[in-house]
Design goal:
Layout lengths: L1 H4 L21 H23 L3 H12 L15 H12 L7 H13 L11 E5 L3 E7 L16 H14 L6 E6 L14 H18 L7 E6 L18 E7 L31
Helix pairs in contact: 5-6, 6-7
C-alpha cells in the first residue's frame, strides 16, 4: 500500500540533433584561389625566364614606375604623355642578344624585293664585336655601284632602301663605311683616287638611306678606308674588296647599367672620319 502512495517518476525525453556539416564556411574557395594565384605566378616567372633582355627590362621598368614618368622607362621625367614615344623606342632597342633576330628580319626584307633575290652571294651579314655588320660586296661588273663610280645603281638603291626601312624602326645608331680594292684609281690629275671614291660611296649610301627610313640623327659616322681594310688580303684586286659596310651599333651601358645613346659609343681606333657632302 505504501508503494502505491509514492509519486510517479518523471519521464525524460532526450532528443539528438543531427548535423549535416553545412557549407564548411567556404574555406575551400580561399584555398583554391591561393592555388590558382600561385600557378599563375609560376607560369609568369617561367615565361620571363625565356624572354629577351629588352622585354625583361620593360617589365621591370613597369613595376618600378607604373605611371611611366621615370627616365629609366623612357619618360624623361616630363610625364607619361611626353615620354610615351621614347619608352616605345627603348623597348625596340636591339641589344647583343637580339642582333641575330635583327639579322634574320633584314634578310627576310631583302628577299621580299624581287630584284634582290639573286644577290644572296653579294650581301653578307655577320654579328661582330662592333655590332651587326652588313656588307654589300661588288661583283666584277658592279652590283651596287658601277665600276669606278660613286653613284648608286638600281640594285644598290633597292638594297639600301630595303635596309633603311627596317633599320629606321630601331633606335640603334648606324655607321657606314666605304671600301675599295687595290686597283689604283687616278682621276682629275691624281686628285681623285680610291680614298675619295670610298668616302663618296659611303656618303651616297648615307644620303639614300636617310631619305628612305633612317633618322637624321641615326648615322653617327661615315668612313672611307680605300684599300686599307681588304676583305681578301690574299687577293687585293678581288671585286669583293669593293664594298659598302653598314654597321648597326650595340647600345652601350653607362656605369649605372642604363642604356645610353649609340652616339656615346667610342669609334674604333683606326677609323677614318669621312668629310660631309661639301667634300665633293
Amino acid at each position: 500500500m505504501a508503494e502505491s502512495d509514492s509519486p510517479p517518476k518523471p519521464v525524460y525525453l532526450i532528443k539528438k540533433k543531427i548535423s549535416h556539416g553545412g557549407h564548411h564556411g567556404g574555406a575551400w574557395k580561399v584555398a583554391y584561389a591561393d592555388f590558382v594565384t600561385a600557378m599563375m605566378a609560376l607560369f609568369i616567372v617561367l615565361w620571363l625566364m625565356n624572354t629577351s633582355k629588352p622585354i625583361k627590362e620593360a617589365v621591370a621598368g613597369y613595376f618600378n614606375d607604373p605611371a611611366g614618368t621615370s627616365s629609366s622607362t623612357g619618360g624623361n621625367g616630363k610625364g607619361p604623355a611626353e615620354g610615351a614615344g621614347q619608352g616605345a623606342a627603348d623597348s625596340l632597342t636591339v641589344s647583343k642578344d637580339d642582333m641575330s633576330k635583327l639579322k634574320d628580319e633584314l634578310q627576310d626584307a631583302i628577299q621580299k624585293v624581287q630584284s634582290l633575290r639573286n644577290l644572296n652571294n653579294q650581301i653578307e651579314m655577320t654579328v661582330t664585336g662592333e655590332g651587326l655588320r652588313i656588307e654589300l660586296m661588288e661583283s666584277e661588273k658592279g652590283t651596287f655601284f658601277d665600276s669606278g663610280s660613286p653613284d648608286v645603281n638600281e640594285s644598290g638603291k633597292d638594297t639600301l632602301i630595303a635596309l633603311a626601312q627596317e633599320l629606321g624602326k630601331v633606335p640603334n645608331k648606324v655607321s657606314i663605311e666605304g671600301h675599295t680594292d687595290s686597283i689604283p684609281l687616278a682621276r682629275h690629275g691624281g686628285e681623285y683616287g680610291n680614298w675619295e671614291l670610298s668616302v663618296d660611296r659611303a656618303n651616297a649610301a648615307r644620303r639614300l638611306m636617310q631619305e628612305h627610313g633612317l633618322r637624321p640623327d641615326q648615322v653617327t659616322q661615315v668612313r672611307g678606308f680605300a684599300d686599307q681594310r681588304l676583305r681578301k688580303p690574299e687577293a687585293p684586286k678581288d671585286p669583293s674588296n669593293r664594298r659598302i659596310s653598314v654597321i648597326v651599333q650595340y647600345v652601350p651601358l653607362n656605369p649605372s647599367g642604363q642604356k645610353t645613346s649609340g652616339a656615346d659609343a667610342p669609334p674604333s681606333s683606326d677609323a677614318k672620319s669621312a668629310p660631309d657632302d661639301n667634300h665633293q
